[in-house]
Amino acid sequence: MNTTTRQELLAAFDKLLQPERFKDYGPNGLQVEGKTQVRRVISGVTASRALIEAAIDAQADAIFVHHGLFWRGQDGRVTGWKKQRLALLLAHDISLFAYHLPLDAHPQLGNNAQLGLRLGLTASNCFSEQDLGFLGGRSDGGSFATASDLALHVKNTLKRPVTLVGVGHAAIKKIAWCSGGAQGYFEPAIAAGADAFITGEISEPQAHLARETGVTFIACGHHASERYGAPALASHVAAQFGLHHQFIEIDNPA
């Protein structure tokens, strides 16, 4: 097993994800500085205390996540849960790398690309700002006979219940998707001509839009739609340096 430096690892993540391209809700990159040398990298969806504790048990030198510790508009005081998480990272000298929108958008290793891969979807182009929303269809060129067929496919693939609203189209061919809390991209997906839109969450307005426009809306869970990008990208970078990598799944019903 090889080692690399924290800065070399950061440079590799930044080169792939290009965080400078994005207007985001928090800092992308190195959020907590740990030891200089890195041998073991743990990836996960969110920098929760459960993930940090599991990473400590796995003797991690660095953690790579989609949801980090710091967000715009958040109370900046280091108390309560934030103090507990930071204390664990600092006590064990573990670096925390977090990339939010850049990890969603990466065309091969990001959350949207990896979600599409698992659902058997291929993107032909992006339909929203910052290249976050993907638009395409089935990789085999076919279609889903009904919205219910597509919803069942998503449910079986991700192994969790989904919310389905709107069954207007007789066949679903043109599909838009964006992982996480991207319900606000439903209207751009409709404008792009999608027959269906897949994301993690649904809010009250989207149910009405789905019924009124005939465009299917499928919510498959925020966590469930974003658990593939972090391990794909961290594994890719770890392999470049010959590092040990492990993805740790912390279940989340949201």
Structural class: alpha/beta
- Would you identify the regions where 5 or more consecutive residues have pLDDT less than 50? none
CATH first level of the largest domain: Alpha Beta
Oligomer: single chain
* Strand order in the sheet with the most strands: 7-8-10-11-12-9
Counting H and I runs of at least 4 residues, what is the number of helices?
10
Largest sheet report: 6 strands, mixed
Please give the alpha-carbon distance between the first and last residues: 36 Å
Report Rg: 19 Å
User: What is the CATH fold-level name of the largest domain?
Assistant: Udp-n-acetylmuramoylalanyl-d-glutamate--2,6- Diaminopimelate Ligase, Chain: A, domain 1
Envelope shape: elongated
Strand content: 15-25%
Notable traits:
254 residues, Udp-n-acetylmuramoylalanyl-d-glutamate--2,6- Diaminopimelate Ligase, Chain: A, domain 1, 2 domains, six-stranded mixed β-sheet, five-stranded mixed β-sheet, 10 helices, 13 strands
What does this protein structure show overall?
This protein has 10 helices and 13 strands. By secondary structure, the protein is α/β, with parallel strands linked by helices. The protein folds into 2 domains: about 120 residues, Udp-n-acetylmuramoylalanyl-d-glutamate--2,6- Diaminopimelate Ligase, Chain: A, domain 1, CATH 3.40.1390; about 120 residues, NIF3 (NGG1p interacting factor 3)-like (Udp-n-acetylmuramoylalanyl-d-glutamate--2,6- Diaminopimelate Ligase, Chain: A, domain 1, 3-Layer(aba) Sandwich). The strands form 3 sheets. The protein has a 6-stranded mixed sheet. The chain has a 5-stranded mixed sheet with strand order 2-6-5-4-13, with helices on both faces. Helix 8 links the parallel strand 11 and strand 12. The radius of gyration is 19 Å and the shape is elongated. The model has no long low-confidence stretch (mean pLDDT about 95).
